[in-house]
From TrEMBL:
<keyword id="KW-0732">Signal</keyword>
<dbReference type="Pfam" id="PF13458">
    <property type="entry name" value="Peripla_BP_6"/>
</dbReference>
<feature type="domain" description="Leucine-binding protein">
    <location>
        <begin position="9"/>
        <end position="168"/>
    </location>
</feature>
<dbReference type="InterPro" id="IPR051010">
    <property type="entry name" value="BCAA_transport"/>
</dbReference>
<dbReference type="InterPro" id="IPR028081">
    <property type="entry name" value="Leu-bd"/>
</dbReference>
<protein>
    <recommendedName>
        <fullName>Leucine-binding protein domain-containing protein</fullName>
    </recommendedName>
</protein>
<dbReference type="InterPro" id="IPR028082">
    <property type="entry name" value="Peripla_BP_I"/>
</dbReference>
Amino acid sequence: VNLMSETNFPRFGAEDFTPFIDRVMDSDADGVLISVWGGDLVNFVRQANNRGFFDKDFELLFTVGAATEVLSALGDEMPEGVHLSTRYWYDAYDNAVNTHFVKAYIDAYGVPPSYNAEGAYAAIYAYKKAIEAAGNTDGAAIAKALSGMSLDAPNGTITFRKGDNQAMVSPNWGVSGPMNPEYGIRTLMDLQIFDGEEVARSVEETGCKL
């Protein structure tokens, strides 16, 4: 892999992505890694469509492109056949916790849960479990209880790594597929789940001194 000599970082909240889009389109890049997210990603994709960006022969990877809020906002404006990632894809996990969570969420809101919803759901139960283990709500005691703790969440078993209490979450990658007519979002095909403990930087590399 040959990295481009120049990396482009639009400011957070940027409204006009066309200078960055045009710069990449004029380059000889074979692939593009796109890390904008949320409303910025919605704006980027719409502007990229208008510029013919997706007609170019790029391999495209969106690091948080499979957020269901983004997919709902874009509908079929999100192109088919691009690589999308998320910390959680609602249809990726066959376990009782996920089955219950997805059904309850769809019953309540009519759409599948995003990684944000799953993360909030798991965080509440992690906090509850840590309080029960600590026997109180003292912050230091809870942090100590979290260290090394494991939790059964919708996206499988999560462990809070000793040393920095980082939750080891496994990223989901797939390729955008046909539209799901029930929910108005792209499906995620060729799904792969990468082990969070294998892809995360080590505690030593983070420099965390918890």
